């Protein structure tokens, strides 16, 4: 009788322990994600929503940000499960990739901590700022540019605003003593803590990080999702999802979730315009 009771207790303990082990294995399932710095806060919000469908899943977001090129290399080497690119991936970068799709667009903006410029800038005026010919805000305070590295997507976006901007951005990079943000989040921090700051970011990143910066009108148009949608504000940054040729089940589930209505609602609330499949 006693031996039978002991045996039942041992069996119960083993079953309980195995159950804990199985539960720990479920909780340990994790999705490794890397990419452009501006995507990180949005992906955290989207993954929090996704946990309603996959409560045992975890998010392993590479920090500091890998950047688009670094994330695509990490994906090709099997170090991450899903990449978020801040530009269109190049053909050689996709050679080792699988499915990819444009997820969302957000206005690409010039932002400031406290600069006074009621009407914003025309592109010619912005070129004059970067060239050093328009050094002051409306109230006489100095404009303090926050630059990006020459290879960065934001630098290419600025140069794409026209030949004058392309020349002016290159001139700004040659001036001594300029501050350069090394990634999207580092740039955001520089913009927030520098008096008279001016530099590139996105409306979506400002919203997802709740950073209190002012985005400025460009060519007379204030950046917004409505202006992006109707084409009156054409400057944008697109996030592209890239999967490996054989994605993990969790990566595939999350990618499918990103195309659904729940993800769409999260993106619209945070100044990202979902793009059609």
Rough outline: globular
What is the domain tally? 2
Helix amount: 40-55%
Question: Based on DSSP secondary structure assignment, what is the total number of beta strands?
Answer: 10
The fraction of residues assigned to DSSP E strands is 15-25%
The chain-level mean pLDDT equals 90
The CATH superfamily of the largest domain is identified as: Periplasmic binding protein-like II
Structural class: alpha/beta
CATH A-level architecture of the largest domain:
3-Layer(aba) Sandwich
Query: For this structure, what is the CATH class of the largest domain?
Result: Alpha Beta
Give the termini distance in whole angstroms. 67 Å
What order do the helices and strands follow? HEHEHEHEHEHHEHEHEHEHHE
Using only CA atoms, what is the Rg? 23 Å
Instruction: List low-pLDDT spans.
Output: 1-27
CATH fold node name of the largest domain: D-Maltodextrin-Binding Protein, domain 2
Describe the sheet with the most strands: 10 strands, mixed
Oligomer: single chain
Describe, in plain words, how this protein is organized in 3D.
By secondary structure, this protein is an alpha/beta fold. The protein has two domains: 30-105 and 237-274, D-Maltodextrin-Binding Protein, domain 2, CATH 3.40.190.10; 106-230, Periplasmic binding protein-like II (D-Maltodextrin-Binding Protein, domain 2). Helices cover 44% and strands 18% of the residues. It contains twelve helices and ten strands. The protein has helices at residues 2-28, 39-50, 67-76, 91-94, 123-131, 153-159, 163-174, 184-193, 203-209, 225-230, 249-258, 261-269; strands spanning 30-35, 58-61, 82-85, 100-112, 144-147, 179-180, 197-202, 214-215, 236-242, 273-274. Strands 1, 2, 3, 4, 5, 6, 7, 8, 9 and 10 form a ten-stranded mixed beta sheet that branches. Helix 2 crosses helix 12 (261-269) and helix 5 runs parallel beside helix 7. The radius of gyration is 23 Å and the shape is globular.
């Amino acid at each position: 009788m006693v031996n039978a009771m002991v045996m039942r207790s041992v069996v119960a303990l083993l079953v309980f322990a195995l159950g804990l082990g199985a539960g720990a294995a479920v909780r340990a399932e994790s999705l490794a994600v890397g990419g452009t710095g501006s995507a990180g806060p949005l992906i955290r919000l989207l993954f929090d929503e996704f946990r309603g469908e996959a409560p045992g899943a975890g998010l392993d977001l590479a920090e500091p940000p890998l950047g688009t090129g670094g994330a695509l290399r990490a994906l090709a080497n099997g170090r991450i499960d899903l990449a978020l690119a801040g530009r269109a991936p190049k053909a050689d970068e996709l050679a080792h990739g699988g499915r990819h799709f444009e997820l969302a667009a957000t206005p690409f903006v010039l932002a400031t901590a406290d600069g006074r410029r009621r009407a914003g800038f025309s592109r010619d005026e912005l070129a004059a700022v970067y060239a050093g010919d328009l050094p002051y805000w409306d109230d006489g305070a100095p404009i303090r540019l926050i630059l990006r590295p020459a290879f960065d997507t934001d630098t290419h976006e600025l140069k794409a605003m026209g030949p004058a901007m392309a020349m002016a951005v290159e001139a700004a990079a040659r001036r001594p003593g300029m501050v350069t943000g090394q990634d999207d989040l580092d740039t955001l921090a520089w913009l927030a803590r520098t008096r008279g700051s001016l530099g590139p970011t996105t409306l979506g990143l400002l919203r997802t990080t709740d950073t209190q910066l002012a985005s400025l009108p460009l060519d007379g148009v204030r950046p917004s999702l409505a202006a992006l949608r109707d084409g009156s504000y054409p400057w944008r940054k697109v996030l592209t999802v890239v999967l490996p040729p054989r994605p993990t089940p969790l990566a595939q589930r999350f990618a499918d979730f990103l195309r659904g209505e729940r993800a769409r609602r999260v993106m619209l609330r945070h100044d990202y315009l979902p793009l059609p499949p």
